[in-house]
Design goal:
Layout lengths: L1 H9 L1 H22 L23 H17 L1 H12 L1 E2 L3 H13 L2 H12 L2 H4 L2 H6 L2 H26 L2 H10 L3 H11 L1 H16 L2 H10 L5 H10 L5 H33 L9 E2 L2 H31 L12 H30 L9 H14 L4 H11 L11 H26 L2 H9 L4 H29 L3 H6 L7 H10 L3 H38 L7 H5 L2
Parallel strand pairs: 1-2
Helix pairs in contact: 2-18, 2-19, 3-9, 3-12, 4-9, 5-9, 5-16, 6-13, 6-16, 9-12, 9-13, 12-15, 14-15, 16-25, 17-20, 17-22, 17-24, 18-20, 20-22, 21-22, 22-25, 24-25
């Protein structure tokens, strides 16, 4: 306890930001999840009465079953993608990596809409393919495609953990090729379990697919049932809180299993490992690699975008014009502002939290660990639950922020702070504490150290983290649906409204224009900003401004 108090006292900024994160995350979530025990806390008591004691067993069963199926189906292609990117040398590796990034950045509701346009063709709608798509098979397939990006990252880490020493030892002591393959698969079992846990959480919390294909196929899912309890009269916050407990406990259990498997994988693989060299692909492996690459590219990027483009060029007959109307441009402008500010806040908070671990006296490490744990727990809370919690917590006399842009920006920042921390964790860990300590001993102030040492070394990674958070926030849907202020609907709300009113052509045009604007803004920020800053700052200090400087400084 003394150590904790001393750390808080000597690390004032970290403690202050910890308090901010607690107010923006712990307080709203606790107040919302305790509604079944404290029904008087529900806002608008007349609209927030309990409508039933059940937990929607059909929605619960569908969620567990479909997320489990998606978690199992993602393991084989995820392991294959990680193997091809980590262990093999072939010409299509860059294209596969780009396809996985495209799948990661593609909003799930736009991915679903693109395939819905394809399936609207008469020869598909009336056939077995259409019936499969508008059923459980279609939902599981889209969830699997969407989960490939995260799964491939975990798989690459697993293939890297089975290092060159392990490969050499298996070749010497295990002569049979099939037994070596079986040994490798056994070593990868913890990684496969982690992939399953991550995908199961992501699938159970995917609001975009549940609100589009799930709603049209009349397959109730817990994540969409929570939203319905919060958006249809009579409002039922208490039932929404009960359903939210199901998702939170499911996510916490899966994350606990993932952490245990990760520790077991580290213990099994051993201590120091040499990275295995990449080998050229054989004939059969080349065919398999290109099949995977083309399949991911078509299913996750090309087909949905082409379908949107074809739909955007035609008139659906519902009053659409071949242009974006004022509401669409307003939604794009609002999303640009909300996403820009929230991404800046998320990256700054992540940098401050991770920077607390670099204090030489160790005063900031305890608080930094607490904040890292807190933000990791935030990943177990989907946007719908966080939005409902904000409605409860910030709709009173003390913190009356509901219905303002400030609350939406706060929710954006809190929900995407874990992404920024995960992206920046490795770059901050690579920074040697001696850099700042040497400058401090020579009388360089903290502001000067940040300007001349940390910013040049981390600027490129910071801008990439900002860009990733910005892109995901630009098309954010569940938080926007619940918290957007009156007359200030962001882009995601506008797109879903067009989809609900059957204006598919206008929705496709708005989505494509928004994608172009979002990519242009991200490219300008991630490419020009580092060059402008390093061109004016690093040239005076003799640096090169390139990302490899991080590794060079730690040699």
């Amino acid at each position: 306890m003394r150590r904790l108090i001393g750390a808080v006292g000597t690390c004032g900024p970290s403690a202050l930001f910890g308090a901010v994160i607690a107010v923006s995350f712990l307080y709203p979530l606790a107040r919302f999840l305790l509604l079944p025990l404290m029904p008087d806390w529900a806002p608008l008591p007349g609209l927030g009465t309990v409508s039933g004691l059940g937990l929607s067993s059909e929605a619960l069963g569908n969620t567990v079953r479909l997320s489990t199926e998606a978690g199992l189906l993602v393991i084989p292609p995820g392991l294959l993608a990680g193997f091809l990117l980590e262990r093999r040398r072939w010409r299509g590796a860059g294209l596969l990596s780009a396809a996985l990034w495209g799948v990661f950045l593609m909003p799930s509701y736009l991915l679903t809409m693109g395939w819905q346009i394809v399936m609207a063709a008469p020869f598909l709608t009336d056939g077995p393919v259409g019936r499969l798509f508008y059923g459980e098979a279609g939902i599981v397939a889209l969830l699997t495609v969407k989960g490939l990006a995260f799964s491939s990252v975990a798989a690459r880490a697993g293939w890297h953990a089975v290092g060159a020493d392990m490969d050499a030892a298996s070749r010497v002591h295990v002569p049979a090729a099939w037994r070596r393959a079986w040994l490798t698969l056994r070593l990868l079992l913890p990684v496969a379990g982690s992939m399953f846990a991550i995908q199961m959480v992501a699938a159970s919390q995917d609001f975009g697919i549940a609100a589009t294909l799930g709603a049209q196929a009349h397959i109730p899912l817990v994540i969409y049932a929570i939203y319905q309890n919060l958006s249809t009269v009579p409002l039922d916050f208490i039932q929404a809180a009960r359903l939210s407990w199901v998702l939170v406990l499911l996510a916490l259990a899966a994350l606990a299993v993932q952490a245990a498997l990760a520790r077991r994988g580290t213990t099994t693989a051993g201590g120091h490992r040499h990275r295995p060299g990449t080998l050229a692909c054989g004939g059969g492996m080349i065919v398999l690699a290109w099949c995977l690459t083309v399949g991911v590219l078509l299913a996750g990027v090309v087909v949905p975008l082409l379908a949107l483009a074809v739909q955007a060029m035609g008139d659906t007959g519902a009053g659409d014009r071949l242009s974006v109307d004022g509401d669409g441009w307003r939604g794009i402008g609002l999303s640009l502002r909300y996403a820009f500010v929230s991404a800046v806040f998320a990256v700054l908070l992540a940098a401050l939290i991770l920077g607390g671990r670099m204090r030489a006296d160790g005063s900031g490490r305890v608080v930094a660990r607490m904040l890292l744990w807190l933000t990791s727990a935030n990943m177990a809370v989907p946007g719908v639950i966080l939005g409902a919690a904000y409605v409860i917590a910030f709709n009173g006399r003390v913190l009356s922020l509901y219905g303002t842009p400030a609350l939406l920006i706060l929710a954006y920042t809190a929900s995407h702070l874990p992404i920024a921390i995960r992206f920046l964790d490795a770059p901050f860990a690579q920074l040697h504490r001696g850099l700042g300590e040497a400058a401090r001993v020579h009388g360089v102030s903290l502001a000067r150290r940040v300007e001349r040492i940390y910013v040049p070394l981390l600027l490129r990674r910071l801008t990439w983290a900002w860009g990733m958070v910005f892109v995901t926030l630009f098309f954010e849907l569940p938080l926007s649906e619940i918290l957007y202020p009156a007359g200030g609907a962001p882009l995601g709300v506008t797109l879903l409204s067009l989809d609900d009113t059957l204006h598919y052509g206008a929705e496709a045009r708005l989505a494509l224009v928004a994608m172009g604007i979002c990519l242009a803004a991200t490219a300008v920020a991630t490419i020009l900003v580092p060059r402008l800053v390093t061109g004016s700052g690093l040239e005076r200090t003799g640096g090169s401004g390139k990302a490899p400087t991080l590794e060079q400084e730690n040699v």
